[in-house]
Amino acid sequence: MSTLFIADLHLSENHPKITDAFFSFLDTKTKNIDALYILGDLFEVWIGDDEHTSLMDNIAQKMRDYSVNNDIPIFYIHGNRDFMIGKRYATQSTMQLLPEHHEIDLYGKKVLLMHGDTLCLADKNYQKMRKVIRNPFLQSIFNLLPLRFRKKMGWKIRTASQSKKRYKNSNMMGVTQAEVERLLLKHGCQTLIHGHTHQVAEHQFERDNKSYQRFDVGDWFNSYSYLEADKNSLKLHIKTIAL
Q1: 3-state class of 87 per DSSP?
Q2: pLDDT value for 163
Q3: How large a percentage of the chain has pLDDT more than 90?
Q4: Angstrom distances, CA of residue 113 to CA of 6, 105, 137, 156, 190
Q5: What confidence score (pLDDT) does residue 157 get?
Q6: 2-240 belongs to which CATH class?
């Protein structure tokens, strides 16, 4: 039996091949699977559960079929692009929403899960913005706005974010090691699994005579990646997407 971890698919109508790859992934990963964890940014942008598109409904139905027909639970941690996903869509797609920092028992190993955006402390402008847009009160106000206005605002924010990202150096987009260590010590874990940086890799380090590991599960653009864990190992897989 194994557990799967993915993140940063950024699904949208503009990239149907990524959706096809996700559906193919679900079709082939149905046997001996204990659970699927999606660590944020499943969608490129999310402006509210009251929006209905064929893409959103098709993905929800696909995940529901995967979960119900194969008895595989799907767990979800919000990303920085789709943190507005709410209970309505979670129920529609059978996803179980998790807090932004979540500990699990992974075959006897205590593991910390997160999206990963809070690890990038060098990106000070984003961290300031995050405190504002993730405020529950402001989110509730945003949800009261007309859907058409929210869609326009959501795509403007997305476009601005992509433009700024091109000018950020790798150090700013990468994680802050001190924050990694702080969170692992706080949660009493020696393994961290996350997404967000789109830099698929396994990192190992030592602290106080103990071994620690961090897995970045990568994104789903030119290739897709996922982490597979069983009672013996944690292994990153990278596959090519046919564009």
Answers
A1: helix
A2: 45
A3: 70
A4: 11, 11, 25, 30, 11
A5: 59
A6: alpha beta
What pLDDT score was predicted for residue 147? 62
| Residue of 89, 116, 163, 107 whose CA lies nearest to 7 | 116
Cα separation, 14 vs 162, whole angstroms: 15
Q: Which letter does DSSP use for residue 8 in this model?
A: -
Domain boundaries, the chain: 2-240
- State the DSSP code for 11: B
> How is residue 198 written in tokens?
């789109």
Structure tokens at 162: 């992509």
Instruction: Give Cβ neighbours of residue 212 (< 8 Å, ≥ 6 apart).
Output: 181, 184, 190, 191, 192, 204, 205, 206
Q: Are strands 74-77 and 33-38 parallel, antiparallel or unpaired?
A: parallel
Distance CA 38, CA 42 (A): 7
CA atoms within 13 A on the CB side of 141: 7
Predicted local confidence at residue 167, as pLDDT: 46
**211: which strand partners?**
206
Query: Which residues does the chain have with pLDDT short of 70?
Result: 138-139, 141-173, 242-243
> How open is the CA angle 95-35-53, to the nearest 5 degrees?
30
Burial degree of 97 (CB within 10 A; 0-12, 13-18, 19+): middle
